[in-house]
Amino acid sequence: MTKMLVTGGAGFIGANFVAYTLRCHPEYEIHVLDALTYAGDRSSLAECAHPIRFTHGDICDAALVDRLVADADIVVHFAAESHVDNSLDDPGPFFRSNLLGTYTLLEAVRRHDVRLHHISTDEVFGDLDPDSADKFTEHTAYDPSSPYSATKAGSDLLVRAWARSYGVAVTLSNCANNYGPYQHVEKFIPRQVTNLLLGERPKLYGAGLNVREWTHVDDHNAAVHLVLRDGRLGNTYLIGSGDERSNKQIIELVLELMGQPADFYQQVSDRPGHDLRYSNDTTKIRTELGWRPEFGDLRDGLAATIDWYRDHEWWWKARKAATEERYRRLNR
């Protein structure tokens, strides 16, 4: 058995990664480290609690991280503060978790000579012209727009610097927007779906013309496993389905799939510095590693996601009131 430490493994993508690994890669013995902030929840791991070890702890706790890394063969680093609106309201936790936490982990893997895979976002690249055919590549210059993306960009650069300066064995991946089960209701798709399930109108920022590339979380995690198995050390791989939709189109598709009129939504004030468009050129991971998304068409993955939220009200309803109160305070 290969011992794998998963940081942030009780968050959205991390919890799905743990479940996917248990289903598809039983050769790994998994240990999850998670601080269980508002966005992390042990219940997201309920279906796979028995086969894994869990430690409730902070990625910035150097002694704890050192002890856990010393017992690992490989680390997959999901732990991060990740919600743009929260970073605009209070950037401090993002600096601490995304920068200091990554530094703490890097020092531990350096001491113990442990392989690290670092999970990041395409938001580090800034945005693209909505009317262009341009895409981000692994060589696109960083131009982050928010405290969230700036701290993720900084964490990427730390990982690359530790690889170059100290010879740490690393790979990195930057993924497009994820969706799927166990995503916090503060995020765009689950917020709209759960609003409708409660009989409320979805909320659309501004005119809703901002374009995102949407990738199902299982497709993302399948790509990460290919990088773990066959990725070249020191390399970065972009992940994305290729399915781009504006926020307005997403809300209209959610409304269609849930049997509501296409205009049954409420426009709210736009987010400051809202990036216009993200799109990843995934040629490298497709040609080198043979990755292909199972949910290449958003419709199928979104329908399955809506069904999940409909069937798991027990998981999200307690979070919903606090989330909407925070949005009311932000006037969004």
Topology of this protein?
Layout: E1 2-7, H1 12-24, E2 28-34, E3 53-56, H2 62-70, E4 74-77, H3 84-89, H4 92-112, E5 115-121, H5 147-166, E6 170-175, E7 177-179, H6 188-197, E8 203-205, E9 211-216, H7 217-230, E10 236-239, E11 244-246, H8 247-257, E12 266-268, H9 283-289, H10 298-311, H11 313-329
Parallel strand pairs: 1-2, 1-4, 2-3, 4-5, 5-6, 6-10, 7-9, 8-12
Antiparallel strand pairs: 9-11
Helix pairs in contact: 1-7, 2-4, 4-5, 6-8
In short:
The protein is α/β, with parallel strands linked by helices and 332 residues long. It has helices at residues 12-24, 62-70, 84-89, 92-112, 147-166, 188-197, 217-230, 247-257, 283-289, 298-311, 313-329, and strands spanning 2-7, 28-34, 53-56, 74-77, 115-121, 170-175, 177-179, 203-205, 211-216, 236-239, 244-246, 266-268.
List the main descriptive attributes of the protein structure presented here.
332 residues; alpha/beta; Rossmann fold; UDP-galactose 4-epimerase, domain 1; seven-stranded parallel β-sheet; three-stranded mixed β-sheet; 11 helices
What can you tell me about this protein's structure?
It is a single chain. This protein is of the alpha/beta class. The chain folds into two domains: 2-178 and 214-239, NAD(P)-binding Rossmann-like Domain (Rossmann fold), CATH 3.40.50; 185-212 and 244-276 and 296-324, UDP-galactose 4-epimerase, domain 1 (Alpha-Beta Complex), CATH 3.90.25.10. 43% of the residues lie in helices and 17% in strands. The protein has a seven-stranded parallel beta sheet with strand order 3-2-1-4-5-6-10, with helices on both faces. Strands 7-9-11 form a three-stranded mixed beta sheet. The longest helix has 21 residues, at 92-112. The model has no long low-confidence stretch (mean pLDDT 95).
